[in-house]
Amino acid sequence: LGFTDQLVQLSISPDMRLDQILQIVGATPKGRTDCVLPILYAKENNIPIDVFVYLTDSKTGTGDISPSDALKQYRAAMKIDAKFCVCAMSSNGFAIAAPDDAGMLDMVGFDSLAPLVIRNFALGDI
Fold first, then answer.
1. H or E segment at 122?
2. Angle of helix 37-44 versus helix 67-78 axis, rounded to 10
3. CA–CA separation, 11 vs 29, rounded Å?
4. Residue 39 CB: number of other CB atoms within 10 A?
5. Which residues contact 14 (CB under 8 A, 6 or more apart)?
6. Please, are residues 85 and 121 in contact by the beta-carbon 8 Å criterion?
7. CA dihedral 96, 86, 94, 35 (to 10 degrees)
8. For the stretch 82-114, what's the b/e string if a residue is b when 16 or more beta carbons lie within 10 angstroms of its beta carbon?
9. How many helices (H) and strands (E) are present in the chain, helices listed first?
């Protein structure tokens, strides 16, 4: 599943080559990134998700509902203590995560330790 300002099914399979995947992803519609869409989609389709992880260029926005409110609704509907992590490749002073929600994390920069931070956050170690 990919998204910008709309959700797009990506026909990606484990046996595909990287150039094939890049072609599919590159053909997706471009627009502002509404990071709430996957949460709403998971809730509407009863898909259990432990952690929503977003890798973005930092140009992230939302529609009519905040990520914090969408996550609260998802948690209540699914009865899952789902987490939310946004990792921006650069900073524009963004803040998506609610500072009073320990299940939400904003990160800036992606180096060799970023996956470990995301993993530890997902496991509740930080």
1. helix 114-123
2. 20
3. 14
4. 22
5. none
6. yes
7. -60
8. bbbbbbbeeeeebebbbeeeebbbbbeeeeeee
9. 4, 7
- What are the structure tokens assigned to 2, written together? 């990919």
Q: What is the pLDDT of residues 58-115, one digit of tens each?
A: 666 667 889 999 999 999 999 999 999 999 888 777 678 888 999 999 999 999 999 9
DSSP for 11-57, written as a single string: ---TT--HHHHHHHHHTSPP--EETTHHHHHHHHTT---SEEEEEE-
> What is d(CA 103, CA 59) in angstroms, rounded to the nearest whole number?
22
Residue 48 backbone dihedrals phi, psi, to 5 degrees: -75, 125
